[in-house]
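Contributing new records

If you add data, match the layout below exactly. Sequence lines come first and carry their own label; structure lines follow with theirs. Keep one chain per record. Anything else will be rejected by the validation script.
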Amino acid sequence: MSHQPVHLAVYNTLADWEPGHATAHLARAGYPIRTVGPTRDPVTSIGGLRIQPDLVLDDVRPEDSSLLILPGADLWDTSDDLAPFARKAREFLDAGVPVAAICGGTAGLAREGLLDDRDHTSAVSFYLAATGYKGGDRYVDADAVTDGNLVTAGPTEPVAFAREIFRLLGVYEGEVLDAWYRLFHDSDAEAYAVLQEAAE
């Protein structure tokens, strides 16, 4: 089954561990993964991975996408360089296309005003409070939160982040989604049998 691509934002200081579970399993489920940079110039992640973006941010349109993923990066908190990615997230959400942000990506959304009226989470509440946003009363102390077409999570929850993305896109559901989470989050060997049976 073919799907519209998933667009993964990539930029210097990208927290490369955060989107990995999501992108790997989305690709296996038939979602092409397309990396999106500020320009076509290569970027370097926190882990030293050099990534050549497939697309430039300005060329990405919500109608051509299944999802926009905004991983964390030091740049979210040290400059305004990544603000265009938060503005692109607004464009996606306004068009009814999902956005998933983790770690620093949530701070970018907070600065853009996208968390003022949506339930959300992040690393800790005071991290987002430092942005000056108005959505503190919508902060949820949870591993990951979905509100409509928006998924948020903190930096220590890449598996829960992926779980919410899979639920939102219908990649895994019910006991299969639960088994996937238990396998990759809890190393629950019994969950593997459930996934194997579902794959047959």
